Amino acid sequence: MSRVVVIGSGLGGLAAAARLAAGGHQVTVLEQAPQVGGKLGWYARDGHGFDTGPSLVTLPQVLRDLFTATGAPLESELDLLRLDPATGYRFADGTRLQLPGDPAGIPAALDDALGAGAGTQWTAFLDRAERMWQATEQPFLRSPLAGAATLARLARSTGDVATIAPWRSLRGLGSGYLQHPHLRTLLDRYATYSGSDPRRAPAALATVPYVEQAFGSWYVRGGLRRVAEAVARRAADRGAELRTSAPVARVLTEGGRARGVQLAGGERIAADVVVSNADAEALYAGLLPAGAPVRAARAQLARTTPSFSGFVLLLALQGRTPGLAHHTVLFPQDYDAEFDALFGRGGPPRPVADPTVYVSAPDDPATRPDDDSESWFVLVNAPRHEPGRGVDWDTPGLADSYADRVLAVLAERGLDVRSRVRWRVVRTPADLARDTRSVGGSIYGTSSNGARAAFLRPANASPLPGLYLVGGSAHPGGGLPLVLLSAEIVTGLVGPAR
């Protein structure tokens, strides 16, 4: 039996703990916060409840695989509901689009909203995206990064290379299929799932809308925080110890490998294996001793572009909004101006003046005190918290003034709720950085900007023997399915208990 310490109880850390404990390892999970979940957070007040992180489950089979591999099936723990529709889109010219949950109905919905031929364009694009998914799922997403060997797996046939088109951007690929400007805007949005710019993100991100539409968008009754709670229970049931309010100060090394951790209070916990669910940049910059062999990993991270962050409003509303989907996305007139602001083109990074606004409003009694109320999680993409170099989100008055601006944008685009607000909570990138120790509040660690970005993402096996990385800042990337896959990869790398 190997002793394993897991740093952080985000979904990646919890999933790794459950798998490793089920495999016979002695597992201890250490979480700095008073509760488990990491970015799968929950905020409750006066009967209103909000998921403060992810609000959808996509590719649910990955979650099912986790529960099957560790005991009783998923359905024994969670009530998973397929959303129909999952998202309503509102474009700057007033056009509205709701995509049905059944993929067979999507072409007709696009034709109805955007005109004849839009459905055919989108279908042709998704056919290409499906081929890309088939070419990359096993050799890349479900396998550890292994330098040239990873490239060899992806290049096993010239046809696959042509399908993936690693030399093309997501925007560039879409322009070859999508003539309608609203379809191109819709596609650009999927770059933001990894905190990226569609003009620089690789064409392979076309797999994101394919997965979302082919396998559905799902919600967990009671909120997605239930996912973290269920995986934590599964880990504990398999014998893992979960300790909250236990921040890790550093990783201990001995004999050239990881040998445990030291907590902020001085306690040392010995281990044969350390699995870090901490932000990779924070791990390599602050949790390892000076002599650890991670110089190349730090240099590789320095060559990446960090993902952007998010500015959030939690709105407790009086009354109900008719016809509201689970998600509503309100696009700006100039999407490129948003990406320019986020990544500092034409000046330093700056809050977006006219942002895309995402509203998550689950129709779930667990999120509201009564049937004449709503709880909205409102998100806009925002630059990282970088005092002295970019935006200092702790500047007095900035958070509240920008919150007022976001509410005004909602009103300008047809969702004026200012007179219905009982109270609001504002969460900035600086808050996210403090709460989750993600550097600058980057939601996904590094972005996918650039053809080589996926190969620069920190590998699951670190250069320090005995130290492994899981979570959204490590391979294969951010988002619930990929985070779960990172835990599966690490479990395979650690191997069975000896």
Automatic annotation (TrEMBL):
<keyword id="KW-0560">Oxidoreductase</keyword>
<feature type="domain" description="Amine oxidase">
    <location>
        <begin position="11"/>
        <end position="303"/>
    </location>
</feature>
<comment type="similarity">
    <text>Belongs to the carotenoid/retinoid oxidoreductase family.</text>
</comment>
<dbReference type="GO" id="GO:0016117">
    <property type="term" value="P:carotenoid biosynthetic process"/>
</dbReference>
<dbReference type="InterPro" id="IPR002937">
    <property type="entry name" value="Amino_oxidase"/>
</dbReference>
<dbReference type="InterPro" id="IPR036188">
    <property type="entry name" value="FAD/NAD-bd_sf"/>
</dbReference>
<dbReference type="InterPro" id="IPR014105">
    <property type="entry name" value="Carotenoid/retinoid_OxRdtase"/>
</dbReference>
<dbReference type="GO" id="GO:0016491">
    <property type="term" value="F:oxidoreductase activity"/>
</dbReference>
<comment type="pathway">
    <text>Carotenoid biosynthesis.</text>
</comment>
<protein>
    <submittedName>
        <fullName>Phytoene desaturase</fullName>
    </submittedName>
</protein>
<keyword id="KW-0125">Carotenoid biosynthesis</keyword>
<dbReference type="Pfam" id="PF01593">
    <property type="entry name" value="Amino_oxidase"/>
</dbReference>
